[in-house]
Amino acid sequence: MKDFKTLFDEIGGTETIEKLVEAFYPRVYEDPVLSPLFEGDIEEIKRKQRMFLTQFLGGPPLYSQEFGPPAMKQRHLPFEITPLRAQRWLACMKEAFKESGLDQNPASALFYDRLMQVAAIMVNSPE
Ligand code: HEM
């Protein structure tokens, strides 16, 4: 018997992830500090992020089923990720938490903390 909920369940599963990702990427593509890195198709990056976040929060391992090990640090190495860019990424995410209503969920603080940890690890260039 399953007597615990994953963070994925706690935040409202697929529906919440979809809203969050929809609110997040338009901000990223419009951010002057981040936009030079995002030249690819916004629909494809949204699709990847929905799969990744689902898995990251303990939902079905959708990302790995298609792409293998997440290895996020390694996959970000081609991009110059400075401390400022990590800060801007997180700021866009914070706004997306608000727009999607996720900020009202008691589990959102834990989710955001985990994103802060991963964002810090992704930094690979000085300012
Ligand atoms: C710290 C600042 C970050 C920057 C500047 C950044 C930037 C990028 C860029 C430029 C791409 C490639 C976009 C493309 O293919 O068009 C990417 C891909 C991706 N990022 Fe980030 N990222 C950051 C942090 C994060 C964090 C914290 C996560 C997860 C919690 C994340 C998850 C992903 C995923 C899942 C992909 C798709 C990987 C793939 O190609 O399979 N990123 N990111």
If you had to describe this structure to a student in words, what would you say it looks like?
This protein is mainly alpha-helical. It has a single domain, classed as Globins (Globin-like). It has helices spanning 7-10, 13-30, 42-56, 62-67, 72-76, 83-100, 108-122. Helix 2 (13-30) packs across helix 3 (42-56) and helix 6 runs antiparallel to helix 7 (108-122). The longest helix is centred in the N-terminal third of the chain and has 18 residues, at 13-30. It starts with 6 loop residues before the first helix and ends in a 5-residue tail after the last helix. Protoporphyrin IX containing FE (HEM) binds next to helix 3, helix 5, helix 6 and helix 7.
Any key phrases for this structure?
Globin-like; mainly alpha; binds protoporphyrin IX containing FE; globular; 127 residues
The topology string of helices and strands comes to HHHHHHH
Named once each, the bound ligands are: protoporphyrin IX containing FE
First CA to last CA: what distance?
Answer: 50 Å
**CATH superfamily caption:** Globins
- Rg from alpha-carbon coordinates: 14 Å
What spatial form do the alpha-carbon principal axes imply? globular
Pfam family, one: Bac_globin
GO molecular function: heme binding; metal ion binding; oxygen binding; oxygen carrier activity
Keywords: Heme, Iron, Metal-binding, Transport
Family: Belongs to the truncated hemoglobin family. Group II subfamily.
